[in-house]
Amino acid sequence: MATKAEEAKVEKERKREEARKNKPTAPIFYKVRAKFTEAMLGSSPASSEVYKTYIGEKLKEEKQKLGEEVATLPVEEKDKMGRSVYHKDDKGIFLFDYKIRGFLKSAAEAITGSSEITAYKSKIDKWMFVSPRLIYLHAPEPASHILQEPDGILERPIRAMTAGRMAQRFLRKIRV
After folding, report:
1. How far apart are CA 46 and CA 83, in angstroms?
2. Which are the contacts of 131, defined by CB distance < 8 A and separation ≥ 6?
3. pLDDT, tens digit, 9 for 90 and up, residues 132-173
């Protein structure tokens, strides 16, 4: 006759084997369409120097990508300090795929504060892929065409750390 500990061990092993069998072997793809409920602020600094310094640190080995990204900053907005913009090409304004992944990591961090999910950032890196590389922003329905320009400029006060103290500054944000 088996003891309760042995029975629990057998049950645990049975569940583990069942989970192994039910694991998907092929990737699952989802096509997602997001609708913003509020104005979306620009996604990149307008200053090409700030962009090269900040993003350049993260793309040390991929200097070609950095050059491509700086080239897609709007020419009329380049080098305006304190302004955020969208990348733009001949087709319209867009976000790079890694910005969506960064958002997903931030969202996961916000919801996993007290949960037992661990290493969520590495799980997103390992199992979640965003494509295509350029994600074009579309006008709201019924038009649903790719936006060529942002809707306008949104100015708002922000709090920023300056010289170790909290100080209030005004930044101009371009919004969609």
Report:
1. 6
2. 97
3. 999 999 888 777 788 888 887 776 666 555 554 544 454 455
C-alpha span between 100 and 108 (Å, rounded): 12
Nearest to 130 by CA among 32, 24, 23, 25: 32
Q: DSSP code of 138?
A: B
Distance CA 96, CA 102 (A): 10
Edge-to-edge, what's the strand order for the sheet holding 83-85?
44-45, 83-85, 165-175, 152-162
Q: What is the pLDDT of residues 47-86, one digit of tens each?
A: 777 777 777 777 666 666 777 777 888 776 555 667 788 8
Residue 145: exposure state from Cβ atoms within 10 A (0-12, 13-18, ≥19): exposed
3-state DSSP assignment of residue 32: coil
Cα distance between residue 12 and residue 18, in whole Å = 10
Angle (CA) 50-51-53 rounded to 5° is 65
pTM over 0.70: no
Q: CB under 8 Å to 10, separation ≥6 — which residues?
A: 2
